[in-house]
Amino acid sequence: MFLTAGIVLAYYFWYDSVTLFIAIGIFSFSGVVVMIFGNKLHISPVCTVFYVFFIIGLILTVGRIHASVYGIKEETVVAEIRINNVEIKNGEYMLDVDFTSETTSGKARLDANGYDIFSLGDKATALIYVKPMEIADENYKLNDYYFTRKEKYDGKILDVYKYENGGLNFIETIKLNIKDNLEVLGENQGIAYALLTGDKYLIDESTYDNYRVSGLAHVLAVSGLHVSIIAGGLIFLLKKLKVNRFVRLGTVGGALFLYAVFCEFTPSVTRAFIMTSVLLVADCSGDEKDFLSSITLSATIILLINPFNLFNVSFLLSYSAVLGIAMLYPQFKKLFRRIPVFFREFFAVSLAVNIFSFPVMAYYFKSVSLVFLLANILVLPAMSLGYMLLLMGAILSLITTLKFFVYPGGIFVSYMNFVAEKVAELPFASISVKGLGISAICLYFTFLAVSDFIMLKPKYKTVTASVSAVLFLSLAIFA
């Protein structure tokens, strides 16, 4: 929490560098005083640790911002470029590239309209116009290309002097082969590719809108759901083969690491990999599994690597989902204790995840699904089998070059598309909302109050949750 506080403070004041550096100076001086005179001042060592993480968050964020903007300027240059990604959407032909010129180099997102000759891995000598990419908009929303893909430049291809087909790296080759093998699924190719890689660029807008409106968009981002299916399948197989638990740990951990590499360590898959690894180690060593500690550890590692992941929608949705499970799932299980176990589990998980993710969805997408429970109950029970069929089919098609192996998984994708489309067509399937702003804080206090992490008597829990809920509704409606 204190690490995130430091990141948030630095991010929202970085435009006002004088105020920011004064704040850093004050907090750093205070930190030195705490560390030197902490015992005399009777300051708890735990408070000192919290303070250190706050300062680390501040310094990391400021350093990342200034390293990103220093020396970046607008210019037109002749450069050697290498194509890392081709994106065609709404008639726009965009390229993500690495470029090198005599005066500058880096990663850029280029408008290539009129030069639709490029494919992944191609190389060229081109005249390009580049300018510094905007870090965030006027509402402080981060530019995902800037901080996720590390592209410091925006620009345009003005002319191409020389062009050649380039080679692909190992991961790019695998992804391209998977994409080609999935072409036999027709209009289901984009969803199948997203389920396997987390990359949604092949999905058309109307299909993605169906998933968003129906509350199923979370299955398209490779995260804990996908990683747990892979881990669960491997553990089941290795147990049947009576493999030693330590060998089992290494095998499953290694497989999950390779999958995280394949998915390019996106925040959601990195979180799932770290948490699953921690829980596997605890299980192997006989220690008690601490779900909340694994959440905290994974978030700390991800934010130390890149503090701006805190403002990435994938990171926020991923962590809101697991925090929803940690805080609200036990309460919903008690609430639905009279219904059959099979339905109780899906009701409890779906409600916990979607309700806790509600403020993030409202802020980023300006709409919230009202039919998520129906869609998730229809899809999630079949998810484990369908995803494993799709994954195994993709692997077998890569090994044998026989594309028909992906058909069984394609049937599951067709079913998902059907559910998403039909549920999204229901009246009042979603509502448009404004960003919740400060009212979201009251909503999260409500969640915290009803969770098992607050040791209050039931009547005080009820009062605390009710007051927080009333404040949330008042601010959301009248603010």
Briefly characterize the structure.
The protein has 479 residues and is of the alpha+beta class. It has helices spanning 2-13, 17-37, 45-69, 144-147, 170-181, 189-197, 205-214, 224-240, 245-262, 267-285, 291-305, 313-327, 329-335, 341-365, 372-400, 407-424, 439-450, 458-478, and strands spanning 75-89, 92-100, 105-111, 123-132, 153-164, 367-369, 430-432.
What's the number of helices?
A: 18
What is the makeup of the main sheet? 5 strands, mixed, barrel
> How helical, in percent, are the residues?
55-70%
Integer average pLDDT: 79
Assigned CATH class of the domain at 75-164: Mainly Beta
H and E order: HHHEEEEHEHHHHHHHHHHEHHEHH
Report the sheet-strand fraction: 5-15%
Which structural class is indicated by helix and strand composition? Answer: alpha+beta
**What best-fitting shape do the alpha-carbon axes yield?**
globular
Beta strand count: 7
Layout of strands and helices, then pairs:
Elements: H1 2-13, H2 17-37, H3 45-69, E1 75-89, E2 92-100, E3 105-111, E4 123-132, H4 144-147, E5 153-164, H5 170-181, H6 189-197, H7 205-214, H8 224-240, H9 245-262, H10 267-285, H11 291-305, H12 313-327, H13 329-335, H14 341-365, E6 367-369, H15 372-400, H16 407-424, E7 430-432, H17 439-450, H18 458-478
Parallel strand pairs: 3-5
Antiparallel strand pairs: 1-2, 1-4, 2-3, 4-5, 6-7
Tell me what the structure shows.
By secondary structure, the protein is of the alpha+beta class. Among the domains are: 2-69; 75-164, OB fold (Dihydrolipoamide Acetyltransferase, E2P), CATH 2.40.50; 447-478. Helix content is 60%, strand content 12%. It is built from 18 helices and 7 strands. The protein has helices at residues 2-13, 17-37, 45-69, 144-147, 170-181, 189-197, 205-214, 224-240, 245-262, 267-285, 291-305, 313-327, 329-335, 341-365, 372-400, 407-424, 439-450, 458-478; strands spanning 75-89, 92-100, 105-111, 123-132, 153-164, 367-369, 430-432. The strands form 2 sheets. A 5-stranded mixed barrel has the order 1-2-3-5-4. The chain has a two-stranded antiparallel ribbon with strand order 6-7. A hairpin with a 4-residue loop joins β2 (92-100) and β3 (105-111).
